[in-house]
Specification:
28% of the residues lie in helices and 23% in strands. The relative contact order is 0.09. The model has no long low-confidence stretch (mean pLDDT 96). It has a 10-stranded mixed β-sheet. A 5-stranded antiparallel β-sheet has the order 6-5-11-17-15, with helices on one face. Strand 13 and strand 14 form a beta hairpin. The chain has 787 residues and is of the alpha+beta class. It is elongated and about 100 Å long. It has 17 helices and 30 strands.
Length: 787
C-alpha cells in the first residue's frame, strides 16, 4: 500500500534471490593511497565495489532514477545514450554522462585516497522539475543474503545503512554547503518493497520504510539536483558513517586532483620496454590503451596481500545468480603473465611483490594450487604444470634485468623444477583447466622454466635440468603432432599440432582415434583427439623453441585459420580450440555450465607475437585488440561472434557477458605493444632463446618416465630414467645377463639413472623397477629401432 509516513518494517522478506551485475564492465579503478576500495562501472552506474580486499564485493550496484514526482521516471542504467570516460588515459577518475531529452545526468567517481570511501559527485541538468534518486543494493561480505538495511540518523545526518557480519556500509550525501543532502529515504526487500518497485507501482517515491532484513535488501533516497555522495565501508555501520562524512567534508575537486596526480606520478615512474625511437610506431590511441591497460593491472592488485592479483573485478554472467566463479581468485599463470607486462612497463616494484607472494604461497612439494583466495587458502586444487613453471620464469626474468633486489629464489626454483621434472611432461590440466595430457603451451613453459631456472641450481642439478629440457624439446613434435590424418588430407596439409595429447596415447596406439570429451558442451561434439586443434602451439615460436616458418608450424597455422579464425569489423580473432563450449548459448543467454565458445581477444595478441617473430607487421593485431576494448579501454575475455542481439547488448566484436576487464588480456596487450617496440617478444626468456633460437636440439639420451614410457628406442640413443621415487633398475638385453643401476638425486628431488649405450645389434631390452613405491614384478619392454 502507498504510504507517505514512515513505517518501521518493510514488507516482502526476504526478497528475491540475489544476483550480481553483468560481467561486462565499462571502467574499474582504485587509489594508490592506503584506502582499500576498488570500484567497477557497468551500464553507466557503479557496479560491484570491493573492500577491504580485492576479492570481496560489498555491493551489487549503486544507480539512479530521475523523476518529476508526477509519473515520469526512468532508471538511468536503461539509457543507451551514455558516455563513460577516464579523466585521462590510465587515470581512474571516472566521468559518466547520461543524456535524455529532458535531462543530462553527470556522475564523477573517485576513491578517497586516505579513507575507505568512494565519492560520487552528481549533477542533474535540464528540466528543473526533475530530481535524482539514489538506489543502493548492498551485498555485504560477498552475498546478497542476510543483509540488514536501515534508514536512520547519525549525529544529526540522514544515513543509509547496511550491515552483515563483520561488514558495515553507510551512504551519506552533502550539498554544496556540505550539509545533509538526503530528503525522503526508504529501504526494502529486492523485488518486493525496494525503491524501484515503488516507482514501478506509483510513478513516484511513496514508500518510507525504516528497516529491512535479514534478506536481499535495497535502499533509496531523494537528492537535490547537485550533491556529493560518500559510500563508506568499515567493520560497523557507525564506523562506515564516520568515514563517509569525514570524506565529504572537503572539496570534491581536491580529492579528484589528488587521484589524478598520484596516478600520473605512477605512470611517470614506469618506463615501457622498447627503444624510445620506436615509440612513434604507436598511435596516440594505442599509447592511451597501453596506459589504460597498465592501470587495469595495477588496480587489480590487493593492498593487504601485496603482490596478489585477482583475474578480474567482474562476475561473468553475474546477473544470472549469486555464485561467483573463479575470477576473484589468484591464478599463478595470470599473476606471472601480469608480472611480465608490468616488467615490460618498467613497474619492477610491483613485479617483485608478485614474486614474493608466489614464493610465500608455494606448496611444500614445489607446486601451486590451481587457484586460491588472496591469503593462500585453496579454491580449486588441480595441477597445471605451466602454473608451476611460470614463477620460475618470473624469477629468471627479474634476474636477467638485475632486479631481484635481494629476493632469494634458489629454494623456490629447486622445488618447482623438481615437481616439473617428476610429474611432467604430462599435465593433469591444460591452461584452460580442462583436459589432461601433453599440451604445446604447457610444455613450452615447462621447458623454458628448466632452462631459465637451471642457473640457480648446483652444477649437477643444472646439468640435468638442461639435459631434460633438451630431451623434452627434441621429443615435443613426436608427442604433440600427428600426420596424414583425414583432417590433414581434407585441408591439404601434411601434419599439425594437436590441441592436447591424452596420456593414454603413450601406451595405446588407438588413443588418438577415440573420442576425447570436450568440456562445457550440452552435447559433446564427438571429436577424436586427432580432430581437435587449438592455438596453444604459437607459444613454441614465441619462446624460440620452433622457427616461425617450420613446416609443422605453418601447416597447423593454416588449419587454425580455417577452423578457428573469424574476421570481425575490428580485426581477426580466434577461438581457443575446436568445439569449445565456454561462452553464451546461441540465443545469447549466459553460460550456465554449458554454452558455445566465443572469440578471445588475447589470442589476437598471441597471434601478433607470432607475426612479429616471423618478421611481419604485428601492428594490425594490436589495433584489433584495442578496437575490441570498451568505450573506456576495458579489454574483454570474450567478444561476440554472431549477429547482434540488442536486447542482450551483444554486438559483433564487442564484449560478451563474460569477464571484462580480463587482466590477462590487458597483460597480453601491453606485452604485444612493448614487443613491437623492442622488435622481439619481451617475455621470451633470454636463456631459452640463447639455447635454441628456434631449432630443435640434438640429443643422445631419451628419458623413460611413468608419464611418458618409451616403447621404441632409436639404436643411437642411450636410455635414461626420470622417476619420482628412488629405484633400482634391473635391466637386461634380450635374454642376456641382468644388470642393475641405482638412481640418484641430482639435487632437485627427482631420481635419475642413465644406462650405457646398448651394443650394436640389440633389438630389445627389458627392465623392472625395484624399491619402495614400485611394483617389482612388472617388466617393461623397450624395442630398439635400427631404422
Amino acid at each position: 500500500m502507498p504510504n507517505d509516513t514512515d513505517i518501521d518494517e518493510a514488507p516482502g522478506a526476504p526478497g528475491l534471490p540475489p544476483s550480481w551485475c553483468n560481467g561486462s564492465k565499462q571502467a574499474v579503478g582504485t587509489t594508490l593511497g592506503p584506502s582499500r576500495i576498488w570500484f567497477t562501472v557497468g551500464q553507466g552506474i557503479l557496479n560491484e565495489i570491493y573492500y577491504p580486499r580485492v576479492d570481496i564485493p560489498q555491493i551489487r550496484d549503486l544507480g539512479f532514477i530521475v523523476a518529476d514526482g508526477k509519473g515520469f521516471w526512468i532508471e538511468v542504467k536503461c539509457l543507451d545514450n551514455c558516455r563513460v570516460a577516464y579523466t585521462s588515459a590510465g587515470v581512474p577518475a571516472v566521468t559518466i554522462v547520461h543524456t535524455h531529452a529532458r535531462f543530462t545526468l553527470t556522475q564523477r567517481i573517485v576513491p578517497e585516497p586516505n579513507r575507505d570511501v568512494l565519492l560520487i559527485q552528481l549533477s542533474l541538468d535540464g528540466d528543473t522539475q526533475l530530481r535524482p534518486y539514489v538506489l543502493l543494493a548492498p551485498h555485504l561480505g560477498g552475498s546478497g543474503y542476510n543483509n540488514l538495511a536501515e534508514v536512520s540518523e547519525h549525529h544529526g545526518r540522514r544515513m543509509l545503512w547496511a550491515q552483515q557480519g563483520p561488514f558495515g556500509l553507510a551512504l551519506a550525501a552533502v550539498d554544496r554547503q556540505q550539509c545533509d543532502a538526503f530528503d525522503i529515504c526508504s529501504c526494502g526487500y529486492f523485488g518486493a518493497s525496494d525503491g524501484w518497485q515503488d516507482f514501478n507501482k506509483h510513478g513516484q517515491m511513496r514508500w518510507r520504510y525504516r528497516r529491512a532484513g535479514p534478506g536481499n535488501v535495497a535502499l533509496m533516497a531523494a537528492l537535490p539536483q547537485c550533491a556529493v555522495l560518500g559510500l563508506g565501508f568499515a567493520t560497523s555501520r557507525e564506523a562506515a558513517a564516520t568515514l563517509a562524512v569525514s570524506a565529504l567534508l572537503q572539496p570534491f575537486d581536491l580529492v579528484w586532483s589528488q587521484q589524478v596526480e598520484q596516478w600520473r606520478q605512477w605512470h611517470g615512474n614506469c618506463h615501457p620496454h622498447g627503444k624510445k625511437a620506436g615509440r612513434k610506431i604507436l598511435t596516440a590511441a594505442l599509447n592511451a590503451q597501453l596506459k589504460t591497460s597498465a592501470m587495469v593491472l595495477r588496480t587489480h592488485q590487493d593492498q593487504t596481500f601485496r603482490g596478489a592479483m585477482v583475474a578480474s573485478l567482474s562476475v561473468p554472467w553475474g546477473e544470472t545468480g549469486e555464485e561467483r566463479p573463479g575470477y576473484h581468485l589468484v591464478w599463478p599463470r595470470d599473476l606471472v603473465e601480469s608480472a611480465g607486462a608490468l616488467l615490460a612497463m618498467g613497474a619492477d616494484v610491483e613485479a617483485r611483490e608478485i614474486l614474493r607472494y608466489l614464493i610465500a604461497t608455494q606448496l611444500e612439494d614445489g607446486s601451486w594450487y590451481q587457484n586460491q583466495w588472496l591469503g593462500g587458502k585453496p579454491n580449486w586444487t588441480g595441477i597445471q604444470l605451466d602454473q608451476v613453471a611460470f614463477p620460475v620464469l618470473l624469477a629468471g626474468t627479474l634476474a636477467d634485468r638485475g632486479a631481484l633486489d635481494g629476493i632469494e629464489v634458489t629454494d623456490m626454483v629447486q622445488r618447482a623444477l623438481g615437481f616439473i621434472a617428476s610429474h611432467g611432461p604430462v599435465s593433469p590440466q591444460d591452461r584452460w583447466e580442462e583436459n589432461s595430457g601433453i599440451n604445446t603451451f604447457t610444455l613450452s613453459v615447462c621447458i623454458a622454466a628448466l632452462v631459465s631456472g637451471a642457473r640457480f641450481m648446483p652444477v649437477s642439478a643444472k646439468d640435468f635440468a638442461l639435459e631434460l629440457a633438451d630431451y623434452w624439446n627434441a621429443r615435443l613434435d613426436d608427442w604433440t603432432a600427428v600426420y596424414d590424418t583425414e583432417l590433414a588430407a581434407h585441408h591439404g596439409v601434411h601434419g599439425y599440432y594437436l590441441r592436447i595429447t591424452p596420456p593414454s596415447a603413450f601406451s595405446d596406439n588407438t588413443a588418438l582415434a577415440r573420442v576425447m570429451a570436450v568440456k562445457n558442451r550440452q552435447r559433446d561434439p564427438g571429436l577424436t583427439a586427432a580432430e581437435q586443434i587449438g592455438v596453444d602451439f604459437l607459444q613454441l615460436v614465441r619462446y624460440g623453441l620452433r622457427d616461425a616458418d617450420a613446416p609443422l608450424v605453418r601447416d597447423t597455422l593454416q588449419l587454425v585459420d580455417t577452423l578457428l579464425r573469424k574476421d570481425l569489423p575490428q580485426g581477426p580473432c580466434w577461438y581457443r580450440y575446436t568445439g569449445d563450449g565456454y561462452g553464451e548459448h546461441q540465443d545469447g543467454t549466459g553460460f550456465d555450465g554449458t554454452g558455445c565458445g566465443r572469440l578471445w581477444p588475447l589470442l589476437t595478441g598471441e597471434r601478433g607475437h607470432y607475426e612479429l617473430v616471423r618478421g611481419a607487421d604485428a601492428l594490425p593485431h594490436l589495433r584489433a585488440m584495442a578496437a575490441m576494448a570498451g568505450q573506456a579501454g576495458m579489454l574483454p575475455e570474450q567478444v561476440w561472434d554472431s549477429d547482434s542481439i540488442a536486447a542482450r547488448r551483444l554486438y559483433p566484436g564487442m564484449a560478451t557477458g563474460s569477464a571484462m576487464p580480463l587482466v590477462w588480456a590487458h597483460a597480453e596487450y601491453i606485452k604485444l605493444a612493448c614487443s613491437i617496440l623492442e622488435g622481439h617478444p619481451v617475455d621470451r626468456p633470454e636463456p631459452l632463446w640463447a639455447r635454441y633460437r628456434g631449432r630443435q636440439p640434438q640429443v643422445d639420451i631419451w628419458y623413460w618416465s611413468p608419464q611418458t614410457p618409451i616403447r621404441t628406442l632409436p639404436a643411437a640413443m642411450r636410455l635414461g630414467f626420470c622417476l619420482p621415487h628412488p629405484a633400482t633398475i634391473l635391466w637386461r638385453i634380450g635374454e642376456g645377463e641382468s644388470h642393475d643401476v641405482v638412481t640418484f638425486d641430482p639435487g632437485i628431488d627427482v631420481h635419475v639413472a642413465r644406462l650405457p649405450r646398448l651394443p650394436a645389434g640389440a633389438d630389445r631390452m627389458h627392465f623392472r623397477l625395484a624399491g619402495a613405491g614400485w611394483d617389482g614384478d612388472v617388466e617393461y619392454e623397450v624395442l630398439v629401432s635400427n631404422g
